[in-house]
Design goal:
Elements (H helix, E strand, L loop, with lengths): L2 H17 L11 E9 L8 H14 L4 E4 L14 E8 L1 H15 L19 E5 L19 E7 L4 H11 L11
Antiparallel strand pairs: 1-3, 1-5, 2-3, 4-5
Helix pairs in contact: 1-4
């Protein structure tokens, strides 16, 4: 079983129950899913970039990535409806907690000049962050990287408010910036 699942059951749940005075244990927020996506803008010129990005995303998440296609045509971007333009995967269960553990313990500390994450939540307790390159993950072989590609990571929680979502993710060890460190 993933380390963070045990931590959630033994440490985080009692802390959140006490902090937000929940009466029912089912009120305690949890992480529902993590969505990892890559938008490949260079796919318009070179279609193999989408396949390469999907391969990298599959290696990083441990789950096969789905290629996403353009929903509408945009002439300014030379984009036609149905063209492959990115890839994504949705993680749930044990894989989700293992990915979150690797993100917090390995990937975020590898970011150059990292001072913590801004706590920008969506108003419903969900958190999104962006990474500038896929090579931050140790699973990626740097010799086989064709091009550097960023990715978006969205952590969807069952929290009702941003304060509950922040407390949940901080309990897992997510390194948020201190309020006086906003620059």
């Amino acid at each position: 079983m993933a380390r963070l699942i045990e931590k959630y059951k033994t440490e985080i749940t009692p802390e959140l129950k006490e902090k937000f005075s929940y009466r029912n244990p089912h009120q305690v927020p949890t992480v529902r899913k993590i969505i990892v996506s890559m938008g490949v803008g260079s796919a318009v010129e070179n279609k193999s970039h989408v396949e390469s990005a999907a391969k990298d995303l599959t290696v990083v998440t441990g789950q096969k990535a789905v290629v996403t296609k353009a929903k509408q045509s945009i002439a300014g971007f030379r984009l036609r409806e149905g063209m492959p333009i990115g890839c994504m995967t949705t993680l749930r269960g044990v894989r989700m907690f293992e990915f979150l553990d690797r993100l917090i313990a390995v990937v975020l500390p590898r970011i150059r000049d990292f001072r913590g994450l801004r706590d920008k939540f969506d108003g419903h307790g969900n958190f999104s962050l962006g990474l500038t390159e896929q090579s931050l993950f140790p699973e990626i072989d740097l010799d086989r990287v064709e091009f550097t590609q960023g990715m978006n990571i969205t952590i969807v929680t069952s929290a009702q408010t941003d304060a509950e979502g922040r407390a949940l993710l901080a309990g897992f060890g997510m390194p948020f910036r201190q309020p006086n460190q906003e620059n």
